[in-house]
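Data deposition worksheet. Section B asks for the primary sequence of the deposited chain exactly as it was used as input, without tags or linkers unless they were present during the calculation. Section C holds the resulting structure in C-alpha cell form. Section D is free text for depositor observations; keep each observation to a single sentence. Incomplete worksheets are returned to the depositor.
Section A, Depositor: J.P.
Section B:
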Amino acid sequence: MGLDVKALQVFNRQVNPATQCVLTHIAQDVGELQGLPQLVGIGGGLCLGLAKNTGRDFAHHTGHAHGVYLDDADSGDTVEANVFYRMGTGAGLGGGHDNIFRNNIAIECRRGFAIDARGVSRHYEKDATKLRDLAAVKTGEPPWSTRFPTLVNLLANHPELPTGCIVERNISVACEKDLDLRAKPDELRFSTVRENAALAMDDLHFADAATMDFRVASDAPMFVKVTGFAAIPFEKIGLYLDKYRKTLPAHPSGHTVSEWHRERDEHK
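Section C:
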C-alpha cells in the first residue's frame, strides 16, 4: 500500500519487471524499460493490479509485449504521460472498470492502444472468484466507499462490460494499428473513446528520433491537432545523477548517453 517507484532502468528481462497488485500503488517516473518480456507475448513493462497511477515511463524495443498492460478486469488505473516505442502494444486495457488512458504517445508499435470487452465471453458477472473477492469488501464503507465509489453498484452496472473507462488524447505515430477496439460498439457503451489521433512523425518535431530523444518541440503541430495534449517531460525519465548516484552506468544496449540526459543532469 502506498508504494512509490521512481527513476529505474530495466533491461532485457524475460518476465514482467514491475508488477503491482496492491491498493493505491503509485508508479510514477518509473523510467526506462527495454527488451521486456521477449518470451511472454501478453506480458508488459508494467502489468498492473488495482488503483494505480503510472506516468512518465519510456518502454521500448519489445515487439511482443505491452508497455503497460491492465490485465483481466484490472480496474481503477490512470495511465498518463508515457512514451512507447516499438512495442507490441503501447498500452492495453483488458476488460476492467474506471481505467484512464490519457496523454500518451505510441511510436512505431504494432498496436498503439487497445481496449477489449473480454468480460462478456469470460462472464465476469458469474465469475465465482471475482464475486467472492468483491463480497469480502465492505464497499459501502470507507475507505472503499470514498476511494472506489463505483464499487458499491458494480454488480448492478454490467460488470461484464468495461464501464467508466476513458481513452482520450492519445497519439499514435507510424503504428500498424493506431487504436484497437476489440469489442462490439454496444459493449463499449459505458466507456468513452475520444480525441485520439494518428499523426505523422513531422507533427511532433522530435528532438532526435534516431537516438530516441522523444522530446517534443513546443511549436509542434501536434499541440494544435490534439487540443489539450500536455507536453510529456521526457527529459525527466530514467536514471539521473544526485548525491547518491554519482555516475550513470553504461547503457546495456551499448547506446551512448543521449544529449537530453546530459542537459538534464547539468541542470540538477
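Section D:
The two ends are 30 Å apart (CA to CA).
Residues 124-159 form one domain.
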